[in-house]
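Quick illustration, no need to memorize.
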Amino acid sequence: MKRAILLAVLALPWSGCQGSSSGGADYDPAKDPVTDLSAAVSAAGPARRRIILEVGNEGCVWCDRMHRFIAGDQELRTLWENRFVVVPVYMGPRNWNQEFLKRFPQVTGTPHLFGLSADGSLLHSQAPDELEAGDSYDREKLLSFLSAWAPLR
């Protein structure tokens, strides 16, 4: 049983907890973000990663733009995929996840990013509009955000 749990935890960064590099995250209103965050904490420490809670939903145009922007930039994609365990948290009409999100600062728009330490403690709350540029994202601002909150290696 312990071996099965360990294998599940080690696979977490490459599973539905990790935003896909094809242009979207697995925003599932039925998922339990408490369970997902707990699994991310279990995975982040041994992998020497930090955690990004990515709050959004499948209809979020800016969420899709962010994923496509990151996927199209090798440096951003490498930081996103190798230095963080990303936990998509659905927030929308099918589940606002109020109980879970009330422990964090107010979500001001989507995708809202919370940078967490490997133990799940809040380090930073990132408003999405501060990373945008026109109808896309500002590469330097995204790079600055990811670099500032990536764990030291």
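The radius of gyration is 14 Å.
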